[in-house]
Amino acid sequence: MCLHTKKQFTNRDKGFTLIELLVVVATIAILAALLLPALAGGRLKSQIIMDINNKKQLQLAWTMYASDNSGTLVLNTDQSVTINGTPSWIPPLNLMTWTTSTYNTNVMLLKTNALAPYCSGQYEIYTSPGDTYFSPIQRAAHFDQLFNHRARSVVMDAAVGGDGRNHPADSGQMGYKPPHSLASLNPFFFATRMSQLMHPGESWVFLDEDPDSIDDGIFYLDPRAASGSGTLIEAPASYLGGTCGISFADGHVEAHR
Q1: For 156-167, how does the pLDDT look when each residue is reduced to its tens digit (9 = 90+)?
Q2: Cβ atoms of 58 and 125 closer than 8 Å
Q3: CB atoms within 10 A of CB 185
């Protein structure tokens, strides 16, 4: 009788009942629901920090270029064209599209641009960790399997950096960018020298452009639309939790919503 009772207890101790299993599964689900938002928030925060660090390095390179060139800002031309042998801040072939052109992922081009000598070959700083977008035809061509992102997501303020084609009347102090298109923007002042930035802490230089908007390295914003009555010609990115990293001429970087 005693042996039979012992055997019964041994069999019961070998496994869990269905109710016990359901309790364990429910507990794990609750813990996962509590932890996943925290993990996602931590990942987003690290991406924002990385994006800010990238902008700081680019901003430092931009400042060093001006310092080495007697205060002249690096060229920032429409379509990133080279003017009289002087390259723009990114090479002309580094245009972002949704096509299968290999220029979309050719990061080596970012080692030949005007700022390259000041970036120590760090092509990663030209993109944001939040920009992982590819078009359907790019995915069909396995771009997403070969690369984490397109080569660049960063652009420069059109009002910063000359285009090499200053209007004769402005004595090199201001110009029209570009004279052949976007006529509604003319006249359009842009700083060609560091000394023209009267409020460097308020003059933005680099930001991430929306994946559907980005093409060349220049970002146009109609200054007359500041009142909110106009429309954006191009759009800033917002994939870092609705924020976008923006650098300023005085060297500081902010994440703006």
Answers
A1: 998 898 775 544
A2: yes
A3: 17
